[in-house]
Amino acid sequence: MIMDPISFSFPAQKPYAMLLRMAVAGAAASYDLPVDMLEDLRMAAEEAFDCLLSDEVKNDTQLICDMYRTEAHSATVYMRLSSRSGAPLPDQEKELVYAILRTLMNDVTLFADAKGIFGIRMTLNAEK
Questions:
Q1: 118, containing H or E segment
Q2: How far apart are CA 113 and CA 81, in angstroms?
Q3: Which domains does the chain have, with CATH numbers?
Q4: Contact in structure between 50 and 81 (CB atoms under 8 Å)
Q5: Could you give the strand order of the β-sheet that contains 74-81, starting from the edge strand earlier in sequence?
Q6: Rg for the chain (alpha carbons), in Å?
Q7: pLDDT tens per residue, range 33-88
């Protein structure tokens, strides 16, 4: 069951990375999560954001971020692009992104097609 959903969106451009970090930290704080989880969530969100961006992302593309809980002391972050274009992301790069995110989060799912990764869902539980 999804609890306390929070959604926000902004341009999918690198200068908005700080806004993403602040929004994720604020949402996590509203969930009354332990302080040590906040930095992991911020770092994972920024890494995922970097992964979603490419030189071919259209200027009018939005990053859509949904956060929610399915149980106490956990947070799920689901980030995706509103539209995109571009070249395929090499499998090695997808594997590297997954490996980095897995060091910070308990569960990571990458959504990809022939043009590369277009969405990432990550969950962090307090007992990590």
A1: strand 116-125
A2: 13
A3: 3-125 (3.30.565.10)
A4: no
A5: 3-11, 62-69, 74-81, 116-125, 107-113
A6: 14
A7: 888 888 999 999 999 998 888 767 788 899 999 999 988 889 999 999 988 665 56
CA dihedral 79, 83, 85, 86 (to 10 degrees): -10
DSSP labels, 26-79: HHHHHTT--HHHHHHHHHHHHHHHHHH--TTS-TT-EEEEEEEESSTTEEEEEE
Contact present, 53 and 117 (Cβ < 8 Å): no
Q: Helices 17-30 and 35-52 sit at what angle, rounded to 10 degrees? A: 140
Handedness of CA 72, 76, 77, 83 (dihedral sign): negative
124 vs 1, 87, 88, CA distance in Å?
16, 30, 28
pLDDT band at 106 (very low <50, low <70, confident <90, very high): very high
Q: Higher-confidence residue: 96 or 65? A: 65
